[in-house]
Amino acid sequence: MSIVIEKLTHIYMPGTPFETTALRSVSLTVEDGSFVGVIGHTGSGKSTLVQHMNGLLRPTSGRVVVEGIDVGAKGADLRALRQQVGLVFQYPEYQLFEETVSRDVAFGPRNLGLSEAEVARRVEEALSRVGIDPGELGARSPFELSGGQRRRVALAGVLAMEPRVLILDEPTAGLDPEGRSDMLRMMRELRAREGTTILMISHNMDEVAQVADRVLVMAHGEAILYDTPANVFADARRLSGLGLDVPLMARLSDALRRRGVTVPRGLLTLDAMEAFILERTGRGGRDAG
Questions:
Q1: Whether residues 214 and 255 fall in one domain
Q2: N or C: which end of the chain has fewer CB within 10 A?
Q3: Rounded mean pLDDT of 136-153?
Q4: What percent of the chain shows pLDDT beyond 70?
Q5: Is the pLDDT confidence value at 287 over 80?
Q6: In this predicted structure, what is the pLDDT of residue 251?
Q7: What stretches of the chain show up as alpha helix (H) in DSSP?
């Protein structure tokens, strides 16, 4: 089921000297099973927007309908909503608190009143999905693990709720290159295997280009662009004016075009660029050198 946002406005501390309009009449639809990269400068409204999707915030005006639940409606079942929409904040490993990895992951499912057998199944599956061996690490304290492992455990705690929508705020922040690669791979696999709808807030344009099929650009509380990565990142001048960058391969494509090389739009990843160069080289085209 899609996420439908209609003319969403959110004002913090209305009627006070500190009144701030964080969102201004934002409208968009996130299709079921899609992967949306959410980008924008600090203070653009990204986090405020996604917090409406699991009911942490309610609209000042407008509507947000997620999994058939109107978030701002009187009597909206926010408990049911949060079972369907998992929100992983930046540096989620700081929110771990239980004595063991397994108990931390089990916390959410156990609070749903599930049987211990069902809780155990969810814990084992969630840990396995994020590359943690429950038999090896399940009984250990999460605070004995590496930073990357702790982040995986935190993500497993959300996945154990079996959400249909997963929202991640800077999920690769602070990780080393291997950790970032593993996190992106896990998200791609989750979407492919489960059909999970994923929204990822990120300042890393290369990562967004790798995984997203739609990109939402936020600026000053407004949805400025919502399109395919190829179309969004083709407008480098506009993004630069918003304080944003474009993926490295998009910059390389632009440099090649300025040298007279015909480069198709949408070459945003290293794999895509490599395939293009090999094809041109193999054909022995005039621009291959």
A1: no
A2: C
A3: 91
A4: 97
A5: no
A6: 86
A7: 46-51, 78-84, 101-111, 116-129, 134-137, 147-159, 177-194, 205-211, 229-234, 236-241, 248-258, 270-283
pTM of the model: 0.88
Tallying the residues shown for the chain, one arrives at 289
Q: Are residues 187 and 105 in the same domain?
A: yes
Per the prediction, the chain carries an average pLDDT of 91
Residue 254's pLDDT is what? 82
Residue whose structure tokens are 């005006």: 61
Q: CATH code at 192? A: 3.40.50.300
Both 261 and 177 in one domain: the answer is no
Question: What are the Cα distances from residue 200, in Å, to 53, 66, 167, 285?
Answer: 13, 17, 6, 39
Q: Which DSSP string corresponds to 58-122?
A: --SEEEEEETTEETTSTT--HHHHHHHEEEE-SSGGGG--SSSHHHHHHHHHHHTT--HHHHHHH
What residue has token string 């201004």? Answer: 24
Query: What domain range is 256 assigned to?
Result: 247-289
Q: Are residues 42 and 77 in the same domain?
A: yes
Same domain, 58 and 190: yes
The residue among 176 and 37 whose pLDDT is bigger is: 37
DSSP state of 288: -
Mean pLDDT, range 263-271, rounded to an integer: 84
Separation of alpha carbons 34 and 228, rounded Å: 11
Which amino acid is present at 99? E
| Lookup: tokens for 200 | 């990822």
> Across the strands, what pairs with 60?
none
User: In total, how many domains does the chain have?
Assistant: 2
Selected residue with higher pLDDT from 285 and 193: 193
> Is 208 in contact with 37 (CB distance < 8 Å)?
yes
Instruction: Kindly state whether residue 234 falls inside one of the protein's structural domains.
Output: no
Tokens standing for 181? 């690669």
Specify burial of residue 49 (Cβ count, 10 A radius: 0-12, 13-18, 19+).
buried
What pLDDT does 288 receive?
43
